Amino acid sequence: MNAYPQSMIKLMNEFEKMPGIGQKTAERLACYILKQPVEEAMQLAYAIRDVKKFIKTCSICFNVSEKDPCHICSNTQRDNSVICVIEQLADLLTIEKTGKYNGLYHVLQGHISPLDGISPESLTIEGLLQRVKSNHVEEVILATNLNMEGDATALYIHKQLHSLGVRVTRLARGLPTGSYLEYANTAIVSDAISGRNEMRSS
To answer: Is-annotated flag, keyword Zinc (predicted)?
Structure first.
């Protein structure tokens, strides 16, 4: 890699910081950009700049948007009596693609993982509890991933919601155990939403 000019090496290093991109892919991407006309390459630079400049976090659900509240929270056609709790933005996009859900969302921005230093306080759980207390919420759907961390997060939230008198449900187990929601087939996610099960206190 030292055969490349310093500016190319810098670009490759930045690409390698991205999820799923190794040295070879970073090298191909850098070479691709180098071959593009200046105007096209700058469009990528401007797009990255605009994302960082204009995208903000919704103060209600912690989704990302160019407006606050986001387009989902401010949509009067959505069912505000139901909140679907998800770990990350990609999960929201997966559920929206099904066309089977018309409620609101709450993005946790992760999951509980003590080994990684992620405690309940590191997530947006308190914001969820405040929404349930302050609004006429009838159901909370826990759509965290069906793995150890996702289940632990769902169980913790369920315990926090227990005294608030709201119905708490979990996605149906049509989704394979250990799976990530963002990678699931749209039809499977649709069935999991429709067949969600009520969580009960142990």
So the answer is: yes
